[in-house]
Amino acid sequence: MADKRDFYEVLGVQKGASEDEIKKAYRKMAKQYHPDLHPGDAEAEARFKEVGEAYEVLSDPQKKARYDQYGHAGVDPNFGAGAGGWGSADVDFGDIGDIFSSIFGGFGGGTRRQNPNAPRRGTDAGATVILSFDEAAKGCKKDVPVTRITTCGDCNGSGAKAGTSPTTCPECGGVGQVTRQQRTPFGVMQTQSACPRCQGRGRIIETPCPSCGGQGRVRRTEQVGINIPAGIDDGQVINIPGRGNAGTNGGPAGDLQVQVSVRPHPLFERDGYNIWYELPITYAQACLGAEVDIPTLDGRMSYSIKEGTQPGDVLRVKGKGIPYLNGRGTGDLLLKIVVEVPKNLTSEQKKLLREFEEATGDKNYQKRKTFFEKIKKGFT
Predict the structure, then answer these.
(1) Are 271 and 333 in contact (CB under 8 A)?
(2) What does the alpha-carbon distance between residue 230 and residue 136 come to, in Å, rounded to a whole number?
(3) In DSSP terms, which residues pair with 220 in a beta bridge?
(4) Burial classification of residue 146, based on how many CB atoms lie within 10 Å of its CB (0-12 exposed, 13-18 middle, 19 or more buried)
(5) How confident is the model over 229-268, as pLDDT tens digits?
(6) Which residue in 92, 137, 193, 288 is deepest, having the highest Cβ count within 10 Å?
């Protein structure tokens, strides 16, 4: 335990950070150290696993509470093992809060405690997938490494060694708590506390499963196939029901939340469901019009530049953008026109341009003509 870094330090957040702050920090760090961005880098892979472990604890309110109070020891499977300790049980500190509520809630009153053996849903697990621009636009299938808690295969989640089974705690009758009454000057005070024999579990595991240490669940990393829908964008999250951390006492698994990171494209820029780029054309093409080849997500296509196209004009190519996510329709491709001025002209080329300039004058330049007319009016 001593060589482990503080989980808050791993994620770069302060103790007491909100759930959103922790999630945001996890996404940032997981993206930074993802193995796809650092192939063969053992240090980056170790940091990625460290980030995942930190998030797995700090995103779970119960584990976070134990970690805040006891540090790494509080989330260790063998936390408190030994006489008088918590044993191998997964203590529910939320229920302990209920017990304290019953103590201070009035004489003989209080909050009803949840059955410790009732099925409970597992927490959500997190992962990151890195996509190319084309993969995000068109959709694909990706295998993503996911570290999550699964039901132990050797004991099927019971926590007891194969061939044995947990028994009901004779001290509390399986309810996980004991009630004591004490006579006071104000009357009889009834208090409830976690059963000291089963540590609030309601059952006793005489022979713990060696594979999971009696927890009934184990942490493992596996490849999960994920269908990426067409049109997904950078920063969005894909939620996969039932692929998160395993539940307890036969409860359902949580969800898997996959953070999407999209690599930038060397040419295309995304704007919602539209894509755009700057299209350079020559002065002659802008004046006379031209048929040019333009790149699209589906490959190259021919496109007509109209005569008199101006610098900064935005031309729209319908239906050549990004497909709408989980919907019908497609965005557009936008071409921002850049008229490139030629450099390093020869003497002959300069002569021809001067002759052209003299032949056209101002009558063919509408914006220039309007500009000087405004100047003339402004100074008369």
Answers:
(1) no
(2) 6
(3) 148
(4) buried
(5) 999 999 899 999 999 999 887 889 999 999 999 999 999 9
(6) 137
